[in-house]
Amino acid sequence: MKKLLIRRALAVDPALGPEKVRDLLAENGRITRISAGITPPRGCAVVDARGKWLFPGFIDAHAHAREPGGEKAEDFRSFGLAAAAGGVTTALAMPNTTPPCDDPSLLKKLRARALKKCAVNLLFAAALTKGRAGRALTSMEELAAAGAAAFTDDGGWLAGRRLLEEALRRAWDMDLPVLQHSEDFRLTGPGVINLGPVSRRLGLPGISRAAETSAVRADLASLRRAGAGRLSPQSVPGALRRAGAGRLSPQSVPGALRRAGGRLHLQHLSCAGSVELVRRARAAGLPVTAETCPHYIALTEADVVSGGTDMKMKPPLRAEADRRALIKGLADGTVDMIATDHAPHPAAEKAKGLLRAPFGVTGLETMAGVCLTHLVFAGHLDRLRLAELLSLNPARLLGLHLKGSLAPGMDADLTLIDPSAEYEVQPPFFSKSSNSPFKGRRLRGAAWMTVVGGDIVFRRRG
Question: Which of 207, 374, 395, 409 gives 403 a disulfide partner, CB atoms 3.0 to 4.6 angstroms apart?
Fold first, then answer.
C-alpha cells in the first residue's frame, strides 16, 4: 500500500473550517487522516511542507488538450505535465478537436489513451451537437454512458432556442451540466480584439461586449424556459437556502424539479454586463454557474498593444472596469470558479499577426501564480475563497464527490503552494506551446508540489 505524509502545511479547505497547520496522511490514493502530529506509518514517504499552503487539488473545468488532431500544439502527455506544474490535478478537456468528441466509441478511446499518457486526471466534455455544427443533438445518453463529464459545443454557440432547451432537459436528467460558450457570432463579425479605444488606435476590427452579453441573456432565457426557473423558498431544501443560491447542485434540488429543468454553466465571462446578468439570474433562483479566466482578472485590452497575438483570445481582453467587475463577482459569489481556457497553438500560427492568428492562450502553468498574485496577495479575496474557486466549486459542477476537499475519505489529490516564490514567467514551458500572455511578467506564489491519487507528479525546483 502506497503511503504519503505531508507534514506541517497550512491546510486551506472550507470544509475543514479555519486554516490550521496540519499533517495529512494519504494511503492507497485516499486521504485517511488530517490532524496535527501524525506519526508516519511504516513504509511511508514523508514530505516536510513547513511554510507551504495545502489546498485540495485544483480542478480546471475548461481546457483544450488538443488530442486528437492538434498534437503539434499539445498532446495528453504535455498537457498533463503542464497541468501538474500549475497545481492542477484534474482538468476537463473540451471537444473541439479533429474529429470532435461527439461519438461514444471515440470518447472511450480518448479516455483510455489519457489514462496511460496524462499525469493528471483528465475528464472529457462531449459535444452537444453532431460535428459541433449546431443542428442536431448528439447521442447524449450514450455519451454519458461512455464517460462524458459534461456537454458543450465550446468554440461554438448553441443558439437554437429549442435545441438548447432540449439539451438542458436531457443533460439535467443525467445530472450533467451544459457548458455554454456564450457568443453571438452575428455581433462578433470579423473582430479580433475588444471594441474600444485600443482597437481604434490599432485600426483593428473590434468585438463588442454585446456579442457576449446578448448571448448570456438568451442562454438564461432558455434555461428559464427549460423549466429551471421555478425555484422558490418552498421548493428548495432548507439546507440549500442557508448555503445560498450559488451552491445549487443536482443532489440538493428535489428530484421532480431536476426532471423538469436544466443546469447551465457559462464559460469564460469577460465583461461587467455578463456578471450582472448572472447576479440577477442567481437572485431569481436559476441554477446557473459561471467561470472566468486568469487572463481576464489580470490583464486588459491595453496589454494587447505590447503583447500582440499572445493577448489574442476569445472573448477578448476588455477594459479595466470589466476586470474589476469580474474580481468583484469572484469575491461575492456571483462567479463560481476560475478556469484557464488553456488553448495552445504552434508558434508559427501565432506569428501571423492579430488579424490572422488563431484565438487562444495557454494558462495551465500560470494559473496558480496569477490567481495568487492578482487576487490573494492583492487583497481581493482570501485563501479559503480561492479554494472554493479552484477546487470545491469545480468539483461540484462536475459531480466529483471525492474531490475538492482535504477531508478523510477524499481522493488524495493535493496542491501545495509556495507563497514565497517570486519569479518571471519565461519559456521553456512544459506545454508544447508558448503562447502565454504572462511571458515576461512577475508573479508571486507558485505550485510547489502536485499530488494525484497519492502520487507526487510535480515538485518545483529551488
Answer: 395
